[in-house]
Structure formats: C-alpha cells, structure tokens
Amino acid sequence: MIGLIVVSLSVLLPLAHLALSKVPRTRARVVRLLLLYALVFDVGVIGLPLGFIPHVFFPDQAARMIGWAPGSPFQFEVGVHDGAWGVLGFLCIWIGGSFWVATGLGWSLFMLGATYGHVVQTLRAGDYAPYNFLTIFSDGFVALWLLLLLYLYWRWEIWKDDRAVNG
Questions:
Q1: 69: which DSSP letter?
Q2: Any idea where the domains of the chain sit in the sequence?
Q3: Cβ atoms of 85 and 107 closer than 8 Å
Q4: Mean pLDDT value of segment 86-114
Q5: Which of 101, 115, 127, 148 yields a CA-CA distance of 20 to 30 A from 60?
C-alpha cells in the first residue's frame, strides 16, 4: 500500500538528510527536520495526491478499495477535506512555527478518528479491504508520530523562543 511507503519515507528521508548534512545535529535540529518531513509527507502527500485525487476523481474505485459501497457523495467531502489538509502540509515548507503545530495537531486528531473508524469497521463489519485494514497502521502511526514530534518541537523550539522573548 502506497500510504505505508509514504509514511516510511517520512521517517527514512530525514534520517538520510541528517546523515548526509554537514550541519551539527542538535536535538532541536533533528526534531525540526523529522517534523518538517512528517508534515510534508504524512499530511501533504497523504492529504493531497493520495486523499484528494482518489476520493474526488475516482470515488467509486476509492470506495471499493476501502470496502465501502460506491456512489456515496460523502467521497467528495472526504476528498476536499484531505486536499485542504494536504495544502497545509505542503505550506509547512515555507511557513513554520505555530503553523506547524496547528497543521500537525489538526491532522493528528483527524488521523486518530480515522484509525478508530477503521478499527470499528474491521471489527464490526469484518472489513479487511486493504485501504481499511492497512490504514489502521499508517493512520495510527502518523497520529502518534506527529503528536510526539509536535511535543518535542514545542518543548525544544517554540518554548525556548518564547522564553527568550518573554524573559
């Protein structure tokens, strides 16, 4: 499943970036890079090309891959939702600070809800369709990974900056 590949890249690419970089690896820099890649890949890529496009332009195929009945207008709503978050994920390349916190926190809460929904669908309806069952792992990981990185980012980056400004 492509979502699992994207999530893996969101962890492996920043580690390669850090390994190849000549800039010192402070804990704040490591967290900043891990978080930026997570926001771009786990929010931007998963939201825009992997969420928006299939749900909006190929809704019946997307529904079947999730194990849902085709023909639901809800597909369009989910697609636009994913696309909007995807745009925010890509904007994290240029906008940082509290924008990262807001983007990551919002997407994490959505991913926790999606994980819960996929678990319920698997247990109650026996829906083991790949884009229902396997997304339990990718969505759940993304939510927890982003929350951990946001906490560390807040603690080591933003909180430090706030103390410097406010004394």
A1: P
A2: 2-166
A3: yes
A4: 97
A5: 115
